[in-house]
Specification:
The protein is an alpha+beta fold. It has four domains: 2-86, no CATH class; 91-143, Arc Repressor Mutant, subunit A; 156-251, no CATH class; 259-315, Multidrug-efflux Transporter Regulator, Chain: A, Domain 2 (Orthogonal Bundle). It is built from 16 helices and 13 strands. It has helices at 7-13, 29-36, 40-49, 65-72, 88-93, 97-104, 108-116, 133-141, 149-160, 165-171, 176-184, 205-213, 246-251, 262-269, 273-281, 299-315, and strands spanning 2-4, 26-28, 54-57, 60-64, 94-95, 122-125, 128-132, 162-163, 194-197, 200-204, 259-261, 289-291, 294-298. The longest helix has 17 residues, at 299-315. The protein is elongated and about 95 Å long.
Length: 319
């Protein structure tokens, strides 16, 4: 992109020597270097890389400002001394591995594993790997395992308003097979509203209440029924003992929780979410579970762990 020009060329494009011209088409290599805060050697290294348009007149090199700005908007290695963020256009059409790590809240090494698995189209910019945004978004829409914070919040809201099929069976004191027969039968199937949350089908609480009120054959199992339901996990955790009648179910706005999210545990303990996640993976809180794509920590075991930890800190003289 380096070219040789005459005075006439510059007069047609605007005088590069006119420092007072706000619409200058050209700037000197020194001005370009000063703008980026780089040394003379690095200035000419950029010029010889031909990353932007340059022209030579009477032995002096000049840089086309429009070409320079286009290059600046598509790289992240150099930053102007004015503080203007580089890579504006680059960030519009591509993502860095760190961007995806933060977006999906997964370790960066897992992002690089996904790159090696050729999940996305990538490009190399200044020796750094970047992922094409449209390729990432297409992949994201076609899977349910990884979730953004926004979608996890949507999932959690849906979880709070729904129950799983096994939970519904347990509340009615049925086996799963028996409940599936009810769910799929012509007589009652129209009463259930089924939604997908993080790749799993769940029943809305509102439609389950509609089912309870819409027939007299099935009701919430009383305490002591033969098919005693187990403790259910997640934000809709419950046993049938908490709902003795249909009215109890319909009045229940929120169901007691027996599991904590990573963020809740971090808030309670004052420990970073990243550290809590590592402790959970190592089994410090007993058996953690994954609900709607999110890790859930047993609240009782977490509180016991936290009490022991705080007790140990006091014994060591740590406040």
């Amino acid at each position: 992109m380096t070219d040789t020009a005459t005075d006439t060329d510059f007069r047609m494009s605007g005088n590069p020597r006119d420092s007072g011209n706000a619409d200058r088409t050209w700037m000197s290599v020194k001005e370009m270097g000063d703008l980026l805060g780089i040394r003379k050697t690095d200035r000419y290294w950029l010029v010889h890389k031909n990353v932007f348009e340059t022209r030579s007149i009477r032995g002096k090199m000049w840089v086309n400002t429009d070409s320079f700005e286009k290059w600046y908007a598509n790289q992240v290695k150099y930053q102007k001394v004015t503080g203007e963020e580089p890579g504006r256009e680059l960030k519009e059409w591509s993502l860095s591995p760190r961007d995806i790590s933060q977006l999906l809240e997964i370790p960066e090494y897992r992002v690089y594993e996904l790159i090696k698995e050729k999940k996305w189209e990538t490009v190399t910019v200044d020796h750094w790997t970047r992922i094409k945004r449209d390729s990432f978004e297409k992949w994201y829409r076609g899977q349910k395992h990884y979730r953004t914070a926004e979608d996890r919040q949507i999932d959690e809201d849906l979880e709070n308003a729904t129950i799983t099929f096994p939970q519904a069976a347990a509340i009615l004191g049925m086996t799963r097979k028996e409940f599936y027969s009810v769910l799929r039968g012509k007589e009652y199937s129209q009463l259930f509203e089924i939604v997908e949350v993080a790749g799993r089908n769940r029943i809305t609480k509102a439609s389950f209440g509609k089912f309870l009120n819409g027939q007299d054959k099935y009701c919430i199992a009383e305490k002591g029924e033969p098919a005693k339901p187990a403790v259910l996990s997640g934000s809709a955790a419950s046993t049938n003992e908490e709902f003795k009648t249909k009215e109890d179910w319909l009045k229940a706005k929120d169901v007691p929780r027996r599991f904590l999210t990573i963020e809740e545990a971090a808030l309670i303990s004052g420990i970073t979410p990243q550290a809590i996640s590592r402790y959970a993976m190592r089994g410090h809180f007993g058996e953690s579970r994954r609900v709607g794509g999110m890790v859930r920590i047993p609240e009782k075991q977490f509180q016991e762990w936290l009490a022991n930890r705080q007790g140990g800190e006091k014994a060591d003289g740590i406040n």
